[in-house]
Amino acid sequence: MPAPDSRPHLLARRRLRFLGLTPDDAIRAFFGGNAVVAVIVLALISYFLVREGAGFFGQNRRNLEVYRLAGLEFVDHLRAQEEGHTALTRRLSELRLQAFDRLSRGGADAEAAERALVGFDAYADRFGVAIDPLRALGSELGDVATAIKTKFVVNEDRKEERRQLSAEGRTAEAERVEVMPIDFAAAVKPLLAARDRHREVNRALAAELTSLLVAAPAPPVPELRESLERFGAEVRAYVSELPAIERRLETWDQSRPVSLGEALRAFLFGRQWLTASFWQDWYGLLPLLTGSLLVAGVALILAVPLGVGAAIYVNQFASTREQRVVKPAIEFISAFPSVVLGFFGIAVLGEFLRQVSHVPWLDWVPGFPFSERLNVLTAGCLLALIAVPTIFTLAEDALNNVPRALPEASLALGASRLQTTLRIVFPAALSGIISAVLLGLGRVIGETMVVLLCAGNRIAIPDFTQGLGVMVEPVHTMTGIIAQEMGEVVRGSIHYRALFMVGLVLFLLSLGINFLAQRILRRYRLAPA
């Protein structure tokens, strides 16, 4: 008679025999079932993202059509011209701050520095007010275009109200809801009639800026001479663009249809993400994608040397006692909640880096000094801290998987431990190390809380003309925008669907990283020794 504790096992075996399965078959079915579940979940996620985001491009196309029909596109040419001048004015302000700083470092007190900058300030003031006539014209035409769009929005709301009343069977009330038709062609005639005024304003603006270039003051400090020359070149380039803006206004066609391709390009290559705007909503992916890649790049630049270097040291050079201390300490970092690291970045790391950037002997570092404590650098340092345990653990496992015969043979032939590590062990583990780096990239590019708290959340493409100084600018990321805005959007709205499209791009980016990892792994596995 079998022992009492073996009866459950006998019953299980009898059930398996009844189903025609052996224990090995059951084990294979269990783990195979897990793989099937993973595939099903992946398919459901893909279907959900595509379903919720599919209507975005049709809605965005309609959004762009209204933008054109209402004349907002026409006025935006003037606004772009005004923004270009504002950027030049901001550049002058930066030059003044630099001049004041250099005068102060040269021993001048605040009052003496201000006196030295009187001529420069008068020049900057005259430069700033030169745009006032164009600003007034843009404001006037903007009011006209905004009124057209507002009338359209009111009409759309009334159409929806009428539809809902009709669906409820309240036909009489639905008929009393008045919908006023809009003649867009007639409504934008005041805008088209302002082309002559715009040409006159441009001629006056060009003449004023040209005269300012001739009457430019001497640099307040000699070190700014080159910067002022570059500013003059920027002003001349701005003046040379004025005729092109006039041609755009002349050729502007309100009736030109908006294609789905144009709506797709506006999303993939749009430089603005602007929602709930009285003027025009924009859903451009480029600033979010740029921010995500910048932060992930800084994180990898810091994490790869630290993670791989620590793995090589622990695996090849550290004593048993050191391994018992170093390895758990690094892996323990992954136990920190990302929101705690975000708080650390806000309260400690961001301010520390900002203070370090103001140390005088570090002026040579690109971007130093900087004033924004929450930026690409702060977020990248914290993401590197998150990625190091992943890269370290996987890289160390790859080094462990190298056959022991390889380093032993190298050492037996007289090679040093360092030579053996760099020329034998590391190349043999390279595929696993590359896999570790790519998985670390996937870890940081999908991180949310740290970038939401520490990246600065400025939705704009950084100024890459600053070179490496771009690393201290605030950015927003794809994960951050989803976490920040998803809780506030109306289900089914264009904003809602745009966030799902961002999620779909992020999902495809992650798949691409994994695909690249597999290709690299396959290549190194098949490469001859």
Description:
By secondary structure, the protein is mainly α. It has 3 domains: 17-54; 57-263, no CATH class; 300-526, MetI-like (MetI-like fold, Orthogonal Bundle), CATH 1.10.3720.10. 74% of the residues lie in helices and 1% in strands. It has helices spanning 7-19, 23-53, 56-69, 72-105, 110-116, 118-129, 132-167, 171-176, 184-187, 189-193, 195-214, 225-240, 242-251, 260-268, 286-316, 320-332, 338-357, 376-400, 405-412, 417-428, 430-445, 449-454, 478-485, 494-526; strands at 273-274, 282-283. The protein has a two-stranded antiparallel sheet. The radius of gyration is 32 Å and the shape is flat.
Blueprint (SSEs and pairs):
Layout: H1 7-19, H2 23-53, H3 56-69, H4 72-105, H5 110-116, H6 118-129, H7 132-167, H8 171-176, H9 184-187, H10 189-193, H11 195-214, H12 225-240, H13 242-251, H14 260-268, E1 273-274, E2 282-283, H15 286-316, H16 320-332, H17 338-357, H18 376-400, H19 405-412, H20 417-428, H21 430-445, H22 449-454, H23 478-485, H24 494-526
Antiparallel strand pairs: 1-2
Helix pairs in contact: 2-24, 3-14, 4-6, 4-7, 4-12, 4-13, 11-12, 11-13, 15-18, 15-21, 17-18, 18-21, 19-20, 21-24, 23-24
